[in-house]
Each structure stands twice: as structure tokens, then as C-alpha cells.
User: Which sequence fits this backbone?
């Protein structure tokens, strides 16, 4: 009887009706529930999951992992801040010092943009407020999050702070660092 159940289960899995992971899981649980119902009607009190059902469920879950949305995105487009700022090119005659190398020419009303990256692990509330889109309240939340959970390991971890959306982070990612 067990081999008959396994054969019918495998035939259903292979059939054209099985078109999604959800349908497969639904089928597996339906098979298990039907088996438990038959056992109850016969007076059996065993509710163990058969090895085949457990193995099939494990295979279905593992096969869905590559499609679960864990996709790494790469950035091919130039950053928004790169189109607004230009680095000053040194003349071949003179050797510029470090402060001249970090200077940035800005255009338009971007005069509030910082000349160098802000370290979000050491910046004060006032320094964080200088970043575009960061007000006093958000700067305080960043500092509170840093004090409560420790330093940020990567700039992307800034998203864990409340009210920092992906859009706001994309605007900040070229202006911040965690060094």
C-alpha cells in the first residue's frame, strides 16, 4: 500500500498539473492529510510524516531557493551625484596637497553637499544633518541606532534605521562611508 501511495504521489508531481512550488506543497500536504484521515478511520493513531513526503517537501523547498529573490544587483548606471559634481584636475606643474584633491566643484544649488564622504559611524547629529534629505530627527535616529546596535558594517545597513527608504539611501550612498 505504501509503494502505491509513493507511485501515485510521484505521478502527480510529474504530471503537467504541477506548475508551481505552491501546487507541489499543496499536493504533498493533501496526500499527508488523506493518509492521516485513513489512519484515523482504521483506528491507527500514528501521525508520523512518511520519509518520502518529507524528502519531497525538502527537495521542493531547496529547488525554490535560487528563485526566492536573493539576486545580487549590479550598478551599471552612473551615480546621480557624479553627474552633478566634477573633481578638480591637478595641473602637471604643481603637486596638489590632500585638501585640494578632495575639493569638489558643484553646480546649481548643491552648495550644501559635503566635499568628502561622511562616516556614519563617527558623525555627530550636526554632521549628519548636512547630508541631503537628512533632518534633525532622522540624524538623531541614525545616532540612536548606532548607539543601540553598534557601528554600521556597510553603508547599506543604514536602511535598517526607521524612515530611511531605498530611494533616500540611493541618494546618500555616494556621500557616506563606514570606515
Assistant:
Amino acid at each position: 500500500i505504501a509503494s502505491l501511495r509513493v507511485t501515485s504521489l510521484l505521478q502527480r508531481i510529474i504530471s503537467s498539473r504541477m506548475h508551481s512550488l505552491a501546487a507541489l506543497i499543496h499536493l504533498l500536504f493533501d496526500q499527508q492529510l488523506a493518509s492521516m484521515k485513513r489512519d484515523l478511520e482504521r483506528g491507527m493513531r500514528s501521525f508520523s510524516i512518511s520519509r518520502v513526503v518529507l524528502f519531497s517537501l525538502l527537495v521542493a523547498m531547496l529547488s525554490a531557493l535560487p528563485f526566492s529573490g536573493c539576486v545580487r544587483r549590479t550598478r551599471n548606471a552612473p551615480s546621480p551625484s557624479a553627474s552633478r559634481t566634477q573633481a578638480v584636475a591637478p595641473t602637471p606643474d604643481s603637486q596638489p596637497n590632500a585638501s585640494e584633491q578632495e575639493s569638489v566643484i558643484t553646480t546649481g544649488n548643491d552648495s550644501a553637499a559635503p566635499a568628502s564622504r561622511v562616516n556614519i559611524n563617527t558623525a555627530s547629529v550636526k554632521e549628519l544633518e548636512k547630508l541631503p534629505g537628512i533632518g534633525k530627527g532622522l540624524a538623531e535616529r541614525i545616532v540612536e541606532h548606532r548607539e543601540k546596535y553598534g557601528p554600521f558594517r556597510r553603508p547599506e545597513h543604514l536602511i535598517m534605521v526607521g524612515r530611511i527608504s531605498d530611494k533616500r539611501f540611493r541618494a546618500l550612498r555616494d556621500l557616506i562611508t563606514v570606515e
